[in-house]
Specification:
Elements (H helix, E strand, L loop, with lengths): L3 E10 L2 E11 L15 H9 L6 E5 L6 E4 L11 H6 L9 H13 L13 H13 L4 E4 L3 H7 L2
Parallel strand pairs: 4-5
Antiparallel strand pairs: 1-2, 1-3
The structure holds adenosine-5'-triphosphate and magnesium ion (MG).
Length: about 160
């Protein structure tokens, strides 16, 4: 059984069928790049996998111990706080999350970010890197719906 297993998925928006009996298997450790024309359904497929969109038919399964992170195509213009605040999300100040704090610091360091800079002062590309660090911290699997530069960076 594949790590991520998508079988016979069908999805309609209004009267339009976007996915008709699609399937995908992803093995543990495998990296998948999804390529397609604008509007062909790439982001929607990622939303199906993360569970924010439900299929009209079919099954999507991955191990319960996995948490899914989806990096949105949209970069928010403004978020309060520093790089550390944004990457930490809601775990900052939580007594039980030493492990998460470590993962946050590791991710900031791996992406070469300055933890003390204010998110709102960063360039669009650096904001995307910060959001990538937030998406990856503490996750076993991840999906990017993003531009090539960020994907290459995440694969370094
Ligand atoms: N919530 C929704 N309600 C109705 N239609 C939707 C919804 N979400 C997506 N769609 C439609 O589904 C199709 C696929 O959209 P999606 O955003 O998945 O495409 P994409 O391949 O990611 O495109 P892009 O390359 O531009 O990012 C589009 O025609 C879009 O208009
Ligand atoms: Mg998209």
């Amino acid at each position: 059984m594949a790590y991520i297993n998508i079988q016979n998925v069908e999805l309609n928006f209004g009267g339009t069928r976007l996915f008709d009996d699609i399937g995908l298997n992803v093995e543990q450790g495998e990296r998948v790049v999804l390529v397609g024309r604008n509007g062909s359904g790439k982001s929607t497929l990622l939303r199906l996998i993360e569970g924010s969109v439900k299929p009209d038919a079919g099954n999507i399964a991955y191990p319960k111990r996995c948490r899914c992170a989806h990096l949105s195509q949209m970069v928010p213009q403004a978020l309060p706080g520093t790089v550390l605040d944004v990457v930490s999300g809601d775990s900052r100040g939580n007594e039980d999350s030493e492990d998460k704090r470590q993962q946050v610091n590791i991710m900031i360091s791996r992406l070469g970010l300055d933890a003390e800079r204010f998110f709102n002062s960063l360039s669009a590309g650096l904001k995307r890197q910060v959001l990538l660090a937030r998406a990856l911290a503490g996750k076993r699997i991840y999906f990017c719906s993003t531009n090539r530069q960020t994907i290459w960076t995440s694969m370094r």
